[in-house]
Specification:
The chain is an alpha/beta fold. 47% of the residues lie in helices and 15% in strands. GO terms for molecular function: oxidoreductase activity.
Amino acid sequence: MKLGLEGKVAIVTGSGRGIGAEAARALAEEGARVVVTDIDPETTAATVNQLRGDGHEVIGVVADVTKADDVARLTEQAVSAFGTLHILVNNAGFPKDNYLTKMPEADWDLVTGVILKGAYLCSKAAVPHMMAQRWGRIINISSRAHMGNPGQSSYSAAKAGLVGFTKAISYEEGKFNITVNAIAPGFVETELMRSLPAYDQIKEKWLKATPLPRLGVPRDIADAVLFLASERAGFITGELLHVTGGRYSN
């Protein structure tokens, strides 16, 4: 199925590994030219090398999405390399779990900063290019945690804020033929998730609570990214797509 993504230019934040890396691969496989960006130079280079080795048109930019200068440089390098920008996937983010009374202020600031400020800065930098060509896609990676998880007040707040951000800017940018949507993954088996000390217990809990008899994998989320980036989703904006295997409650 042709999705109309050939030649499109996409930035995927936090794409050194996990969901971001798989989203970058999925877009590249559909013919998009992809900017892989992450704060980690090693994972950025590894993903770029893998995609280039498979014949895809990709560049890598190391950037901290919480810093306006880094984001400006990221956008400038994308446009310099590929001429414009069509698709932005705001994927960068991670949890630092703790109960509220034990959560350091620095951890709160870091989690909410990467997820929310990062999406704000990257979207603000990308939108003028999309406006100029009157076509764009912004896809924000939220989480099922937007409904609240114990021990994840910072992560849940940031991911819920991303949903509100999505809806607000969808109203602002619709007249420029820019769609803005969000995806809420459930439990996805990534390298980061498997490294958690309580991974086995979390996995067992999720399997018992999920209607579909398996956990998510990064490609499940990447396929949702492809759809929302495609011409086939051109009349969808301001929406939140849950990719959770059917699990919503705790």
